[in-house]
Amino acid sequence: MARSRVDAVSPVPQSSPCGHAADHPPAGARRRWLAGSAALAGATLLPAGRALAQATPGVSATEIRIGTTTSLSGPVSALGTINKAHLAYFKMLNETQGGIAGRKINYLITDDGFNPARTLENTRRLVEQEEVAFMFAQLGTGPNSAVVKYLNDRKIPHLFLSVNGDKWGDFKTYPWTMPFAPSARTESQIFVKHALAQKPRSKIAIIYQNDDLGRDFVAGARDVLGAQYDSVVKAMSYEVTDPTVDSQLISLQATGAEVLISGVTGKFGAMVIRRINELGWKALHFLPSGASTVASTMVPAGPERGIGAITSVYTKDPSDPSWADDAGIKAYKAFMARWYPEGNPNESYNSYGYMTAIVLQRLLEQCKGDFRRENIMAQANNLKDMANPMLLDGIRVNTSATDHRPLEQMQLQRWDGKVWQRFGPIIEGAPS
Description:
Elements: E1 3-9, E2 31-37, H1 50-55, E3 63-70, H2 81-97, E4 104-111, H3 116-128, E5 134-136, H4 141-153, E6 158-161, E7 177-179, H5 184-198, E8 204-209, H6 212-225, H7 229-232, E9 233-238, H8 246-253, E10 259-263, H9 267-279, E11 284-286, H10 294-301, E12 310-313, H11 327-339, H12 348-366, H13 373-380, E13 409-415, E14 420-428
Parallel strand pairs: 3-4, 3-5, 5-6, 6-7, 8-9, 8-10, 10-11
Antiparallel strand pairs: 1-2, 2-4, 12-13, 13-14
C-alpha cells in the first residue's frame, strides 16, 4: 500500500534514531515536504542492510530512494504538479510492477517555494540525511544554480531538470547534470533553419530578453549562420522591467528585416504581436513555445493580430481535441483518472511529468539492477532513439556522455487566428 505524507519539518530537521526527520517537529517549523513512496506500509526508509546503503546510497535490496525539491508553494507553485504526477507514476509502477528490478521507488519531494537558499538546504538534507541515490526533475534555473556545483562535486546524478537554458547541457562543466526539454538555443536554431529555407537571402531581426534565456536565441542564430551572422542579423535586447518594447521594434523594422525572432517571455509575447501589427510589419514572425500559449499570449494580443506567427512544439497537447483518439493520450488520461484523479488531465504540466517519469523508468531499467550512482549516470548518458507516447511522432530522446540535451527536435506550428496548426517535418537543431 502506498504511503503519501505531508509533514512540516524544521530547517535543520530533528532526527529519529534511524537518521530521519522526526514525525513531530518543534512548534513553528515552516518547511514542508512530501514523502511519496509506494513502499510497503510500515517499511523503514533506511534499509536493514546498512552496509549496502553505505556502499550505494539510497539503494537497498527492496528500495530505490530518489529526491527532488520543487515549488509546492510560492510564486510558481502551479508547476509543483509536475512532481506530483511523477509521484503518481512511481506509485503505479510500485503497485503494478513491484517497482524496478524488484525495488520499490521511494520518491521524496521537498518544497523550496522557488527560493534558491531553501533549494540548497533541502538538497543537502535529501543527500546527507535521507541518503537519496540521485536527484530528479528539480525546478527552475535559480534553484538548480544553487545546487549544481554541490551535486556535481559529490558525483550525484542531477537528472531531467525542469529548466529552460542551454547551459544545463554543458556536459564538460556539469557532467552529472542533465536537463530534459529542448533549450531556447535549440528552438532558435530550428527557427533560423526554417527561415532560411523560406527566405534564403532575408535579413533577420531578433528581439531578446537580456538574460541567459534571451541570449540563447542569439546563440542559436549564430550556430546556424556562423560567419554570416553579423551581416544577416540585427539583435536588440530589452529588460524585464521595461514597460514596452516599442523602440526596439521600430529600430528592428527599420533594418528591412523580413524575419523576426522574438526571444521573449510572458507578456512580452503579446506586446510584440500587438506592436508589429500596429507598425504594419509583415515579417515572418517566430515566437518561443514558452510565450505562445493561447490564454496568456494570443488572446491578450488579439487573436487576429497574430495570424501567421510560428512557434514550435515537441509534445502532444492533452487539451487538443485532435489528439483525442491517440493511443498515447488515451493511456495518459487513463493513468490520470486512476493514479492522479485530483490532477487536471488537460494540464500540460501533468503530461510533462508523465512523460519524464516514463523516461526515468527506461533509464532505471537499463541499469539492470546496478543502481550505483556511476551506473545511473552512465545509463542517463546512453538513451538511444527512445520514443515516448507523449512526444510527437518522429521525435526521439537521445543522449551520450558528450550530449546532455535529450531533446533536440521540434515541429513548427502556425497560428490561424483560433488555434495553432502543426505543419512541415520534424526539424533538428544544429550542433552547438
